[in-house]
Task: structure prediction
Amino acid sequence: MTQVSLKDLIVGARSGLLVSFPTDTVPALAAIPEKAALIFAAKQRSQDKPLILMAASAEDLWLYVKGSENEYKIWQEVANKYWPGGLTLVLPASQHLPKVMNPIDPTTIGIRVPNSAIARTILAQTGPLATTSANFSGQPALQTMAEIAAQFPNVLALATTESQDEMLGVPSTVAKWTGINWQILRQGTIKLDLSSDNQI
Result:
């Protein structure tokens, strides 16, 4: 079992190790973006399934995406409305994003700010992390830190005595920007209002 304190988890993440911590949806398996390959390897995950870049605030994420002034305005409005929360936005990636985050199609990136105090505390100190659910690819998401520590012995899992009630156990909703409007790729915890104010 490799369950560690919050401080040790943050130090480990910053030094490039794989970590796991609770979020508002399902527990995350995470690494700094440059070390995203560790996640693909640990999960036995196909390279065509991109990871999500998670951060403590929207401001920490805009560097990794690119769009027109108008697009940024729309994205910011959606972020203001739904973040922190269970909504992942798939947007055009900027040159600042390590290609290893999305090896097959490095032109887009999913970004999210979780509605979890513990996750945002970690992310505020590590900077944005490459994340996905903590499980072997194709299997159900693991729900507890103990399960994660058992299945992934090389991962630093947060030792938490806190109730896991905050976690809904349902993945985030995924909405992709098409250049003119939003396309729902996965319906999850949030029902996105696709009204005209979110379109060009």
Observations:
- Strands lie at 3-4, 19-21, 28-31, 52-54, 87-92, 108-112, 129-133, 156-158, 173-177, 182-186.
- Residues 3-198 form a domain with the DHBP synthase fold (CATH 3.90.870.10).
